[in-house]
Amino acid sequence: MRYSLKQLAVFEEVANTRSVSKAAENLALTQSAASMALSQLEKLLGRPLFERQGKQMALTYWGAWLRPRAKQLLFDAQQIELGFYDQHIVSGEIHVAASQTAAEHLLPDLISMIDKDFPELRIQLSVSNAQKVIDRVRNYECELGIIEGRCDDSRVEQEVWCHDHLVIIASKYHPYAKLETVSLAQLEQAKWVLREQGAGTRKSFESAIHGVIDDLDVWREYEQIPVLRTLVMNGPYLSCLPYLDVVKHIERGELVALKVPELNMRRTLSFIWRADSIENPLRECIRREAIRMMKDRKMEM
Known about the structure:
Layout: H1 5-17, H2 20-26, H3 31-45, E1 50-53, E2 56-59, H4 61-84, E3 92-98, H5 100-105, H6 107-117, E4 121-127, H7 130-138, E5 144-148, E6 156-171, H8 184-189, E7 191-195, H9 200-209, E8 217-222, H10 225-234, E9 237-242, H11 243-251, E10 255-258, E11 266-274, H12 281-300
Helix pairs in contact: 1-2, 1-3, 1-4, 2-3, 6-12
Domain HTH lysR-type: 1-60
Protein name: LysR family transcriptional regulator
Pfam family, one: HTH_1
């Protein structure tokens, strides 16, 4: 092969940072060495891989085509090196992005399982709302995402991991708290505090009320679930949150889950990854162990 792994590593880091100088710094190279490696790669392949957009480097069509293939070659090279140093077959670092509910209630147990059985697999975790997770997967910033609800982007593959459900909550002092059931009309008259636009919880809730509730009185929107819980406990508001995020507060009597028979509040938690990515054993290991964890939990229940 005429191109080198060093050239591909520079290409990948420039694509990641959108800057030759930052790529050089991250790879412990001089800027001139990084620029030369990238220039040589473009000359050997006969295509421009980047174009300048202001002070940043943007992938061309050919660069976007090359990126997942370059990432796979670099990953395979790392696995070969680790294998010949007698390290575990499943080893290396993978970046996982997850939405809040999965990150808080499911991933700690999953990471503990993986640390026990695959000590050389290191998981770098970032937490944000579902839309930002999708963006990170789509932009090659992580190899695996975990979101609530659906992703309709054709560039992203999706696989259901497990199910959960949302609940509408109120303070124990709220007038609706003593009602056996709450009507759609009563929900429309209430004051609401909700997750921000782009959050999986918000999308699932809006999907559930679509066509049955025309307008909600939304007073506040926040990313932080604890903020929403506290506002509901201390004020005249309703909110809609994942059951896992409020079950302890319901059991302690601090919050009340309202019964609204007309609404289907079930949803999915899913893995997502780029559709053009080649098989990654670290990603497959996490998915396999995550599915096994949920099967064990169902057996215990």
